[in-house]
């Protein structure tokens, strides 16, 4: 670890080697700071000024789509049918409520 004192405070720098496969070991102190470990994912953020920041990967529902295998014997059309049925039931409930006024 290299400690550099700058005008804004102390900056800790860590050096790591890049393997022939492009892999880098993230030093333990950095992993602890980020709160990550095996098998977490890291996001590399390349900023406009050329700096690169490491962040724990944040997943969205869109990113998680397909990560869980489908239920055997079920298709997405099953869910589409359920949604359509629920919408029809809700529409009927609303119409009944309006007629009761």
How is the main sheet built?
A: 2 strands, antiparallel
**Rg (CA only):** 26 Å
| First-residue to last-residue Cα separation | 75 Å
Structural class by secondary-structure content: alpha+beta
Proportion of residues in extended strands: 15-25%
Task: Tell me the strand order in the biggest sheet.
Answer: 1-2
Compose a concise summary of this entry:
By secondary structure, the protein is α+β, with helices and mostly antiparallel strands. It has 3 helices and 4 strands, in the order ββαββαα.
Keywords:
Pemi-like Protein 1, Chain: D; two-stranded antiparallel sheet; 101 residues; alpha+beta; two-stranded antiparallel ribbon
Mind sketching the topology for me?
Layout: E1 2-6, E2 9-13, H1 28-34, E3 42-46, E4 52-56, H2 61-64, H3 76-99
Antiparallel strand pairs: 1-2, 3-4
